[in-house]
Specification:
heterotrimer; B: mainly alpha; MetI-like fold; disordered C terminus; C: mainly alpha; two-stranded antiparallel ribbon; 14 helices; 2 strands; 75% helix; 3% strand
Chain lengths: 424, 282, 290
Amino acid sequence: MKNVKKLLAMALSGTMVLSAAIPAFAGEEAVVRMWTFLDPTNTSNGRSVALAQMIEEFEADNPGVKVVVEPQDYTTMTAKFLAATVTGDAPDIIWCARDELSGVLDAGALEPLENLFLSEWAEEDIADIDDAFYRFGERDGKHYVLSLSKNAIVLYYRADLLEEAGLEVPTTFDELVTVAEALTGEEEETGMKRYGLGQCFSTQNADSPLLANYIINEQGSLFAEDGTANWANEAGVAAMEWTKSTVESGITPMECLNTSGEDTVTEFEAGKYAMFPLGAVRVPTIKDAASFDPNAVQIAEIPGGCILDGWFVGVWSGSENKEMAGKFLEKMYTKESDKLWVELGGQAPVRKSTMEEIELNESNAYLQVMLDAFTDGWFVPNNMGFIGWKFDLNGAVQEMLGNGAEPMTALENAAANFNSANGR
Amino acid sequence: MKRETKTKKYVMKTVEIAFAAIFGILNLLPIFWGVVTSLKNPREINAFPPKILGFLPTIEHYEKILSSGFFRCIINSVVYAGLAIALGVLLGYLAGYGFARRNFPLKKLAFFLIVVGIPLSTGSSVLLIPNYMYLMNLKMANHWFTMPLIYTAYNLPMATWLLISGIKAVPGELEEAALIDGANQRYIVTRLIPPLVKPSIAAAALFIFIGAWNDYITASVLVTGNELKNIQMAIYDYMGFFGQEWGPLTASATCAVIPILLVFTFLGKQLVSGLTAGAVKG
Amino acid sequence: MKSGKKRREWLGGFYVVPAMALLIMLLIIPLLYTVYCGFFQYKYMMKGNYVGLDNYIYCLTDSTTRNAFLTTLLVTIAATVISIVVGLILALWIDKRGGFFAYIIELIGLVPWVISMVVAGLLWRWLFNGDLGLFNVILKFFGLDPIYVIQNKVSAVIALIFVMSWRTIGYAMILILAGLKGLDGSLLEAAKVDGATAVQSLFRIKLPLIKSQVLLATIVLTVSNFTNNTVPKVLTSGGPVNATNVITLEQYNLSFIYYEFGKSSALSVLIMLVVTIIIACYIKVARYEI
């Protein structure tokens, strides 16, 4: 019992320290709350440093205003935001993932940016940011979000290995196989088996698989006009057969069927793959952790155009501080801020004019590839929600490789899953 | 005869040591691997073949986590766990005494609530969003007391059950004798019983501590902001949207285990034979 | 006198009131709220129409969900049995051995339970990695063929059960040990004097007396394994081909991928119901009386 008392005393004194340390926001300051996965107090992440600098500048320009970032787990952030809108406690600014935006708009949770600042922007300013991402945030003629951390699933490759073998970066799916075959083999020094093409078909953690690109390359989209899955067809079967051939010829290991996206990253960093698909935003961190020359990490567009992804930032429609929240969102999109995102964060620019001012070299050549991918890439339609399709497709591959299912049957099941889960 | 027992003893000892070795290796292999990883520089972490020894150790990952507010999260977690232990042991002990020694109305129903409480608490992640909306409506999310209260509630059913069995094991005659000697009820509850159920109190405290210390999902949903962040949230920071950072991830997980081992050494004395065997077994 | 005793028993209820109040406020009411949500259609947190039992029926008739329930049951029971049996053996061993050695074994047993679950899961996954993991590097060293643990339908399930029991053996061990420590030494002495063998005194005296702790450990571990989302998610990710697709992964997907809060609430209630039934069975079988 004595111990318990001691603990109680310890705990109480700890609590006092804790409550004293919580800054009082009760003053007359206006507070803009923002939920994102970035933590501006983290000094080792370039993007966070960039954000922290923007906040500092913004607070200096607007005395009496405080921007409070409440970092969130990105996987549960949107669900939490939607729950908070119901109870009236949502943050003023929210970052939404691509697949969730449509639902957030359906819920009426975001304020049209035209009401806040967009209507005051000059035409050339709008033209500077007008791209597929900007248009993705449009509904009924109004724009609800601006995109930050723009992303595209691209093909990562080892420039050193390609050069050694005297090969060019592949531009078609057939070339992709040929190059991968040439790069499959044993690493002489370490005896490690190297595969030409890494792929992953986990249904819990993965970026969109190459077979989605294959289907888009064949027929332009994964979905029919009415929003149903459109892959249980000839193009889908061809994509499945192509995937199967990569495994059968040994350029992709059989293990891929339950490999996660994170696994392929670690394995690529270890040198197990010569090429693999992944979101381009990961380039800076992969360079940092590669066990080989970091400048050998390069990216290229996937044949037929990359699949685009990103984060979409909007203002909560129920916020009492919309004006100021809009102002800060605008701040994150100024030319100066864009430079910070690029220079400190290694992010792709949001403005076309920023790109013109960047000098490209070996270490940031990936930025140009990203910009090209943004122009040529494919976005899911934004008129309704399209959720879970990459995991549905991966499930089909698992069924084919793991259970020996016919490609058509596996695709039909995946399409049925997708349609029923999305209420089509 | 004597030699035979000696050989037998020798064989037993070898078996025992072999068993301990297998147990030790299986239990510690991933942890060992984690610690090794946390001491490598980023480029060596993924290098093939995996290096167990023969790399130049670095503490850069530890420096990194400490400079990004890890210490603050440890303090928060200690406070959360400390308050939860204090409240949980107190409420659990009182309830345990009531269940073990009294026959009050609706006792069966009350015990049923304890039983149902176990899945509700251990499976709390299943009820995450309803919990969040409920606590938001009560204006109880996002305070310094949110997590201690939640952790107390989540671990209370288990603590109560442990203390019921602990108190039941104390012979009832002891209490009767004390009453005859003129002691009042208050003395019995606050002075007489607690020293006798020390192992149960220690076990309850230990499990409340571990439950509170190791929670990620509830805290990540119920509190926001760096001021209230707990230690598991700090670990998850290194597997965010931009992927896993093996170095800081394993370094922070390593740091998070150390306080538990300290607490165990402190509370665990009650559970370890030899150190206290005399005190408990008499 | 008699009424005085009765009054004393009745007043005893007040010992339980604070604990009950907290449990009702933070556990029971959210559960009732979840049951309520299960009767409505939700899309992106927007409450829609009252749909009666539709959500519950959906969860019961969907074949993936049903299979997930069965997989969960298999994994849970296997992992719990292994943990309890091994934990019991270890606890008896430590209780007998004592001293610093016992302390070290306890500490080693505790570590898997206390280390961050997600990091442990990731490390095991990495150790099991087909070409690069330590496990296969060791096999290769002994001239054996590599085993792709996570990629094979059978070995993935075994790996999941293994890691889940690995995690909880220490918990069972310490809980059971707490029971053994509370035993009255004189009883065992008496049995010894009466000529009881070690096995007899284990099954006749020790086990019945620590029944409560073993039962509690079984219940907590069953629940904890049944509702564990982290380990299956990071270790085997439900695959390959749904071989390790446990119910919490389905539940997580409904909540955080598809935002179907009506259905996910219904599924949560069903999970709780199944677990409560299992617990009730345990209590019946163990003839535990309060």
